[in-house]
Amino acid sequence: MSNHFVFYILCLVGIIVGIAIVKKVASCLVKLVLLAVIVGLLALYWFCQ
Question: Is the pLDDT of residue 6 over 60?
Answer without folding.
Answer: yes
